[in-house]
Design goal:
Strand content: 5-15%
Helix content: 40-55%
Radius of gyration: 26 Å
Distance between the termini: 60 Å
Length: 405
């Protein structure tokens, strides 16, 4: 998909006498100097008119909402008729969709100002809600009354946070207040939709900062977060409470060298690695907090959370497996490392090291923490050497059963 092809579609529609614009995320990305992933188009032409204009290249993919997809050589482009939405009695879908006459009416129904801009083929921007100004101010703000936007669809709360993480923006104060007040309405949203938005948030480059700033809002989707906020940890090792530590670990996570599944597993495992600490917290005679058994308890709780969100099975198993041993000591001798390679495999152990680094980098900067990090680095280095040259599975043996027979 390309801007040139999108421009060609705009001009074709305009050539038949209808106004047409690029809308939404592609306009936002262009203003940010980024290459858009999708090119969505809004037009005054009705669906049947778009079908007539593009003929065999047009397909009715969402006539109920006025959407027709036009297939071009480089991809598929969605063209939607200007519209306004009715009330949202189900908290997700508008009860009725009415076609509108102007692009301003269409933009007014959108959730965030940075996604409520349009661009015509001549390069003129339509921006009735100052989305361009919000891009410069680096804020995420709802179109109109934020309370009403979240009342229409509670998932917009997580959507706002996802854009905060994706762009590194802060929530506008009124939007933040409305999101916090409406967080409990997230329980009305389907598990699949919650998972998709949370997944997008965690995989975004600014996820750690967003988690740190908006944990109370996120607790509407994952209630187990709330006890972590303000749950103090011993100063010898830690400089954050449990929640801020988890957010800092997500920010510190180094995903280089991980495949697509590994990235997702690590992001979720880091997000949830200490989720059970409040349940395991005790105070010793010295007055210091202890969290005995939080690895195993955390793995159990993470499994409950991920299954509740209907996460993919590989993600549930991968994240839970890492959380169960994330704070366990690693062997320093070759025999111990080879046994661990046999039991867990090199892929799992590389992920475990990445989680351990992120976890330790979110601790206090002390000699004890530095020593632990050095131990992990030494283990990873030797483990990778043995994974290449060592023998730790039956398949790697120089002889097999047939040879023995």
């Amino acid at each position: 998909m390309s801007r040139e092809q999108a421009q060609s579609i705009l001009k074709t529609i305009e050539g038949r006498g209808y106004r047409a614009y690029l809308v939404g995320g592609c306009v936002r990305d262009l203003l940010l100097g980024r290459e858009p992933e999708d090119w969505d188009i809004a037009s005054a032409a009705r669906p049947e008119q778009i079908m007539e204009i593009f003929g065999a290249a047009a397909f009715p993919t969402g006539l109920k909402h006025g959407t027709v997809t036009v297939k071009a050589a480089d991809g598929a482009y969605e063209i939607t008729t200007f519209r306004t939405d009715g009330s949202y009695s189900d908290g997700r879908h508008p009860d009725a969709v009415k076609f509108a006459k102007t692009i301003d009416e269409d933009l007014a129904r959108r959730d965030l100002t940075i996604n409520a801009m349009a661009l015509d083929s001549a390069g003129n921007i339509v921006d009735p809600f100052d989305g361009a100004g919000d891009l410069k101010r680096r804020v995420v703000r709802c179109v109109g009354d934020a309370r009403e936007r979240f009342r229409e669809d509670a998932l917009r709360i997580l959507r706002a946070l996802r854009f905060s993480a994706k762009l590194g923006f802060a929530l506008d104060p009124a939007t933040e207040a409305a999101a916090l007040a409406a967080r409990d309405t997230l329980h009305t949203v389907s598990a699949e939709r919650l998972y998709t938005e949370l997944d997008g948030l965690l995989l975004a480059p600014g996820a750690g900062q967003t988690l740190a700033q908006y944990g109370e809002i996120l607790s509407g989707a994952v209630p187990e977060i709330l006890p972590c906020i303000g749950c103090t940890q011993p100063g010898r090792w830690h400089c954050y409470d449990v929640w801020q530590h988890s957010a800092a670990a997500v920010a510190a996570l180094d995903l280089r060298g991980q495949d697509t599944r590994g990235v997702r597993v690590l992001c979720w495992a880091t997000f949830l690695h200490d989720i059970a600490k409040p349940l395991c917290r005790s105070v010793g005679p010295d007055g210091a907090a202890h969290f005995k058994g939080h690895n195993q308890r955390g793995a159990q709780l993470a499994r409950v959370i991920l299954r509740r969100l209907k996460a993919p099975a590989y993600l549930v198993d991968g994240a839970v497996g890492l959380i169960a041993v994330h704070d366990a000591p690693l062997p320093a001798d070759d025999v111990g490392i080879l046994k661990l390679l046999n039991r867990s495999g090199a892929i799992f152990l590389r992920r475990l090291c990445a989680l351990k680094y992120a976890d330790l980098d979110a601790h206090a900067n002390t000699p004890e923490v530095a020593a632990r990090r050095a131990d992990v680095a030494a283990f990873e280095r030797r483990m990778n050497e043995l994974a290449k040259t060592g023998c730790y599975t039956m398949r790697q043996l120089a002889v097999n059963g047939a040879d023995l027979m």
